[in-house]
Design brief:
The complex is a heterodimer of chains A (115) and B (111).
Chain A: E1 4-7, E2 10-13, E3 19-25, E4 31-38, E5 42-51, E6 54-57, E7 65-66, E8 76-78, E9 87-94, E10 105-106, E11 110-114
Parallel strand pairs in A: 2-11
Antiparallel strand pairs in A: 1-3, 3-8, 4-5, 4-9, 5-6, 7-8, 9-10, 9-11
Chain B: E1 4-5, E2 10-14, E3 19-25, E4 32-38, E5 45-51, E6 56-59, E7 62-67, E8 72-77, E9 86-93, E10 100-101, E11 105-110
Parallel strand pairs in B: 2-11
Antiparallel strand pairs in B: 1-3, 3-8, 4-5, 4-9, 6-7, 7-8, 9-10, 9-11
Classes of the chains: A mainly beta (115), B mainly beta (111).
Chain lengths: 115, 111
């Protein structure tokens, strides 16, 4: 089954404790992206990747890091989480090098609470 | 400054009637437009898209209209069904950058 998976689905952590949210897709997609969803703000892009070893900042990259060492995985790293990073996070992927021209498939979401 | 605006946070429509969701954008360089649907506790799922060379795209009960001169797109659902109750996001993009999403409209279909 074609899908985007994220882990963990739910995470409670404390300020400053490094964490990683994993994202994996099995569709051989080149384009992958991370979004956060906050009440009243919709979906905002954090980082995206057009291909392996190619990553770019989205609209709200501060406080986040990503890596794309292999095509299927695109982990989101919070080196020193803060309470304002409490949010619902979605990973997405799509085929083709012009990612936005293709339908993006979203993962189920990771709900993060930073205390 | 919001590049993509969905001015109605929520919309209530009676079952069987037409639901019309609206989206306005500011950048005339956007050339690809999509609608996503999101149920609680799930990721957004693609619904329908339209490119800038068209002004209408239809898929079953869903039709997207694009008015480039007004920088406006809309999603029509007819007839509306209870399963259509969800949050709908419009998304726009152009070039190699990612998508920019609106804040979403919560559609409630009443029996």
């Amino acid at each position: 089954e074609a899908q985007v998976t994220q882990n963990p689905r739910y995470l409670i952590t404390v300020t400053g404790k490094k964490l990683t949210v994993t994202c994996s897709q099995n569709m051989n997609h080149e384009y992958m992206s991370w979004y956060r969803q906050d009440p009243g703000l919709g979906l905002r892009q954090i980082y995206y990747s057009m291909n392996v070893e190619v990553t770019d900042k989205g609209d709200v990259p501060e406080g986040y890091k990503v890596s794309r060492k292999e095509k299927r995985n695109f982990p989101l790293i919070l080196e020193s989480p803060s309470p304002n990073q409490t949010s619902l996070y979605f990973c997405a992927s799509s085929s083709g090098t012009s990612g936005i021209m293709e339908t993006q498939y979203f993962g189920p979401g990771t709900r993060l609470l930073v205390l | 400054d919001q590049q993509v605006k969905q001015n109605s946070p929520s919309l209530s429509v009676q079952e069987g009637r037409i639901s019309i969701l609206n989206c306005d954008y500011t950048n005339s360089m956007f050339d690809y437009f999509l609608w996503y649907k999101k149920y609680p506790a799930e990721g957004p799922t693609f619904l329908i898209s339209i490119s800038s060379i068209k002004d209408k795209n239809e898929d079953g009960r869903f039709t997207v209209f694009l008015n480039k001169s007004a920088k406006h797109l809309s999603l029509h659902i007819v007839p509306s069904q209870p399963g259509d109750s969800a949050v709908y996001f419009c998304a726009v993009g152009g070039g190699a950058d990612g998508l920019t999403f609106g804040k979403g409209t919560h559609l409630i279909i009443q029996p």
